[in-house]
Write a structure and sequence with these properties.
Oligomer: single chain
Shape: globular
Strand content: 5-15%
Largest sheet: 8 strands, parallel
Order of helices and strands: HEHEHHEHEHEHEHEHEHH
Structural class: alpha/beta
Bound molecules: zinc ion
Distance between the termini: 42 Å
Number of strands: 8
Radius of gyration: 19 Å
Length: 342
């Protein structure tokens, strides 16, 4: 017999256990429609979101909320991969089909390439993945090596993290670090120490999934500090506003890390609206929700803001390898016109 499950299942990829998990912050009472006017005309860049797991509705909503570009880091997909082919197909989709799909909704798509920490623990497979990674990191629109780093902080994770730091150095690409959700403080410090040990300039490293306990040290050591806005957990956007109030906008960026678990692809525009409500300046909001991500990942030489800063042209009749996002009989829609469905 199956009992009714009313509990919220944590997202095992990006979720952080927290006693505060079920405390709804006050701003949840404010409907999105009530505050989307606050961010009218703003542009956003989400430097961490896993679109392969998201729907066309998400793409539409993101476009309407002002997200003009995003970065999709290579990650695990929930189901452990059993062979090299699925890695190849996944990496190919990040520079191929998914980028095309994003373009069809007016959003410029970039990605980072890497072997994620969790699957680094499958060493026979990890060895093979390391052999093919150089075939992907030099492709157009690849703006970094990521997301790499620690999960359980095992020796295998460290081994493949170090190898990929060397790869990033060789390719002159920024590094996007996934910090562990368990033992975060220790894992974050260890990730940074190892990057420095490999002679990597901290201004080329984006340390992700920060919280109040890690941010000071990350900034003090010259790294970029990225924050993931997680629904129902520690780093909600009320907390994010306080971080920005305390530390200012320099080298701080926010992202949604939305994936196949409970997450919110509109985390950035919503947080921008909340910042606006709290009296944070437009320039600070612009830096943490748009410009800083461009400056950090732009070191790859792969980001040309003229591609998206004044809107991204959409032609939904385009095809990718003969495949389009339109289904039988559908007419291509202008992206801004989603209210009426016919
Ligand atoms: Zn991620």
């Amino acid at each position: 017999m199956c009992a009714n499950h009313t509990e919220i299942t944590p997202n095992p990829s990006h979720f952080e256990d927290s006693e505060e998990a079920n405390q709804a912050p006050a701003h949840r009472d404010i409907a999105w429609n009530d505050y989307k006017d606050l961010i009218k005309g703003m542009r956003f860049f989400d430097p961490h979101i896993h679109m392969v797991s998201r729907t066309t509705d998400d793409y539409q909503a993101m476009n309407q909320a002002g997200i003009v570009a995003l970065i999709e880091p290579a990650f695990w997909v929930g189901q452990p991969r059993t062979g090299l082919s699925t890695f190849k197909d996944y990496y190919s989709s990040l520079v191929g089909w998914e980028r095309f799909r994003s373009s069809q909704f007016g959003i410029k798509h970039y990605c980072t390439m890497g072997l994620n920490s969790r699957e680094a623990n499958n060493e026979p497979l990890a060895e093979q993945v390391m052999e093919i990674l150089p075939l992907y990191i030099y492709k157009e629109g690849v703006v970094g090596v990521g997301e790499i780093g620690f999960d359980d902080q095992t020796p295998a994770e460290e081994k493949y993290y170090r190898l990929q730091l060397e790869l990033a150095k060789e390719a002159k690409l920024p590094v996007q670090i996934h910090t562990p959700h368990r033992d975060k403080k220790k894992g974050t410090e260890r990730s940074m120490a190892i990057a420095l040990e490999h002679g990597i300039d901290p201004s080329w490293v984006i340390v992700d999934h920060n919280n109040e306990e890690t941010v000071k040290s990350v900034l003090d050591q010259g790294f970029w500090a990225a924050f993931t806005i997680y629904p129902f957990t520690k780093m909600g956007n009320e907390r994010m506003v306080k971080v920005v109030e305390q530390y200012g906008p320099e080298r701080i960026m926010i992202n949604s890390a939305a994936d196949w678990g409970i997450s919110d692809p509109l985390a950035i525009p919503k947080t921008a609206a909340l910042m606006k409500m709290r009296g944070i300046s437009d320039e600070t909001i612009r830096l943490v929700t748009y410009q800083n991500a461009i400056d950090a990942f732009g070191k790859s030489g792969q980001i040309d803001v003229t591609d998206f800063e004044s809107g991204y042209a959409v032609d939904q009749t385009e095809k990718f390898h003969g495949n389009s996002i339109l289904r039988g009989g559908q007419q291509p829609a202008p992206v801004k016109d989603f209210l009426v469905i016919n």
